[in-house]
Amino acid sequence: MRALVVRRPGGPDALVESVLPDPAPGPHDVVVAVEAAGVNFIDVYQRSGTYPTPLPFVGGMEGAGRVIGRGAEVTEVGIGDRVGWVNVPGAYAEQARVPASRVVPLPNEVDAVAAASTLLQGMTAHYLTTDAFAVRPGCVALVHAAAGGVGLLLTQAITAAGGEVIGVVSTAAKEHAARAAGAGEVLRYGGADLAERVRALTEGAGVDVVYDGVGAPTFDASLAAVRRRGVLVVFGQAGGAVPPFDLRRLNLAGSVSLLRPNLDHYIADRHELCARAEAVLHALVSGQLRVRPPAQYRLSDAPAAHAALEGGGSIGKLVLVP
């Protein structure tokens, strides 16, 4: 099979197309013919060495396709079943071996490309708005990178729960996308102080919650934009990791709570994984969740997909189609 292998950390060119033996399932595994693989920042972090990963490895942590092999102890799915998965390595390939306990069934209405466009980022938006911080009617949220894959889904999840969104984007096209997803106000990066602009929109109070997937470049503004006893959720570091800081800053900001959550901890057992995936897929089928058609790349073009994601010019999700 063809696969994109990282043998040493580096830039997008560290993803090297290779020919590997077809995987064989272990007793508790399935082998999936990959029809689509999601491109996510965790893939970038692993490829670059920001998240140290044993070498060599096949890139990609999110995929969808059809089961073509299964181990002797597998009871969750059968040959021919359509499944998706997240946070299991090896999706950038024509075939992937996945623990059967980590795959979720796909409804007939959701094709592989839609699943690989939605599962990881959709479940991220779900846990961020239901568990990390429970959005309720009247809440005001600041969403960084509001036109990114997670940002667009976060905006929809917040507004569906009765909250209001102030989005932050970098271009006019992204502003249009954020507003179409439900953002009531959209600010641009750069120019006047971001926190001051947010407080001007909230009568000086600040927002109930900030969802920040950018990290170092936006952290100070995020903290300054949170209301007294509000919550700052730093769920990613697309712009770099937040440096160590004095915890007294949270006190001085108004007894602000700071979270640094990880999707893995919110889908740790199979029951929670399936329930969260089912909620996302149901919202997708019902039309409550709208996903932009993703930018599709061939498997061999994975380096270009990574460059586009890191460059910040993409809107919505990127997927590889083997």
Q: Give the CATH topology of the largest domain.
A: Quinone Oxidoreductase, Chain A, domain 1
Q: What profile does the largest beta sheet have?
A: 7 strands, mixed
How much helix is in the residues? 25-40%
Number of strands: 16
Helices, by number, come to 9
The percent range for strand residues is 25-35%
CATH superfamily of the largest domain: Medium-chain alcohol dehydrogenases, catalytic domain
CATH architecture of the largest domain: Alpha-Beta Complex
Name the CATH class of the largest domain.
Alpha Beta
User: Are there runs of 5+ residues with pLDDT below 50, and where?
Assistant: none
Q: State the oligomer.
A: single chain
